[in-house]
Amino acid sequence: MTSQITTINPATEETIQSYDLMTDAQATQAIEACHQAFSRWKTRSLDDRAAVIRAIGKELRAQKEEFAKLMTQEVGKLIGDSRKEVELCAAICDFTAEAGPKELAEEERDIPGGKGVVSYAPTGVIYGIQPWNFPCYQAVRYAIANLMAGNGVLLKHAPNCTGSGLFLRTVFEAAGLPEDLFTVLVIDHDQSDKVIENRLVRGVTLTGSDGAGRTVAAKAAENLKKTVLELGSNDAYMVLEDADLDTAVEACVQGRLYNNGQTCVNAKRFIVTAPHYDAFVERYAERMRGVELGDPTDEATKLGPMARDDLRDKLASQVNESVEKGARAIVGGTVPDRKGAYYPATVLVDVKPGQPAYDDELFGPVASIIRAEDDADAIRIANDSRYGLGGGIFSKDEARARKIAAEQFDTGMISINGYTVAIPNMPFGGVKDSGYGREHGGFGMKEFVNAKSIYML
């Protein structure tokens, strides 16, 4: 077993920093320290917790530039996207501080012969296993909600953004969060199982692949621990027969390339009805062909590197397999001869079931365009997926699009005539192999609480 984690800049291939892995004993001590901090934090009032969380938002904004540069260095995010990520995390803090005391307040209900009280009590230490694509946001998304609820928080971040996890801990504590309440575990996968088994850990949340979700959920279930899983998707964006093509093309390019194409809710499958298909393909391909790869620290760059070489190689393999099975790459589709984990903006057509471009999640700047005969066929294809995280509908009839979204589209989040990643006051999460549980919108604060019934007789 290696005793260190070394982070690598995916744009330059240069080493950033090395970190010593914790021993099993150190990890256990860290969990115990987090539990002790939780034991004190849970007695703080909701308003007190909210004040600290509001301060964390301010501290994130104060350290935005330094944090943004670190994220871009570690995972290749465009510098502008890194800054926006920190702003989103600060907005999550603002929303949580404002809504938390109301969401978690005790409720009184009439019961026979007396009064019932519903109390939302924190449950303990919550363990989060998070990926690299949003080094700040993925951690903040579950941590802030659980801190507001009164829980302690453990973070096992992806190895390639270890520095970002440790930076976030510094930000939290600089804002006044008690020491050890948010604990970063620098550990490997084998040690992670032992964390789940630890008696002081009361819940587990993971963002990652559906394969990782099955593994973590099984280990948690073996130890009777609740889980919240967000497991990615191959989100479908439908261009219906009455869509505005200009709006659709613009949003679909943005939705595919955002965060260098490495977002669980990126637009990935573009299902275009027959009246628009040829024009959409031509205009979409033209836009994607004009996207040049570049240095993610350059403000003018539109597409940076992927986060690691192995991730780029997996994407290239999925594209190659799709082409071997009948798809055509009309833009991109070839690994460039240059330093760094780069992959070009790519457009695949003739995408059919049985190809990775249709069946799986392509986690990078590759668009799959699928022809539908009509609106009903588009809805059928959109739902023909084992995933169900996000999606989109383009239609001039917003009322009809809203009805389709609510009644026929089997996914967790749907954008109509645009592309949206995450908004603090709206629930975030999916169905089917995209996982279960909800974050944001007040929902995340109650995933790991004990809803107590108190009978006043």
From TrEMBL:
<dbReference type="InterPro" id="IPR016160">
    <property type="entry name" value="Ald_DH_CS_CYS"/>
</dbReference>
<dbReference type="GO" id="GO:0004777">
    <property type="term" value="F:succinate-semialdehyde dehydrogenase (NAD+) activity"/>
</dbReference>
<keyword id="KW-0560">Oxidoreductase</keyword>
<dbReference type="InterPro" id="IPR016161">
    <property type="entry name" value="Ald_DH/histidinol_DH"/>
</dbReference>
<dbReference type="InterPro" id="IPR015590">
    <property type="entry name" value="Aldehyde_DH_dom"/>
</dbReference>
<dbReference type="InterPro" id="IPR044148">
    <property type="entry name" value="ALDH_GabD1-like"/>
</dbReference>
<dbReference type="InterPro" id="IPR016162">
    <property type="entry name" value="Ald_DH_N"/>
</dbReference>
<dbReference type="Pfam" id="PF00171">
    <property type="entry name" value="Aldedh"/>
</dbReference>
<dbReference type="InterPro" id="IPR016163">
    <property type="entry name" value="Ald_DH_C"/>
</dbReference>
<protein>
    <submittedName>
        <fullName>Succinate-semialdehyde dehydrogenase/glutarate-semialdehyde dehydrogenase</fullName>
    </submittedName>
</protein>
<comment type="similarity">
    <text>Belongs to the aldehyde dehydrogenase family.</text>
</comment>
<keyword id="KW-0521">NADP</keyword>
<feature type="domain" description="Aldehyde dehydrogenase">
    <location>
        <begin position="4"/>
        <end position="454"/>
    </location>
</feature>
<dbReference type="InterPro" id="IPR047110">
    <property type="entry name" value="GABD/Sad-like"/>
</dbReference>
<dbReference type="GO" id="GO:0004030">
    <property type="term" value="F:aldehyde dehydrogenase [NAD(P)+] activity"/>
</dbReference>
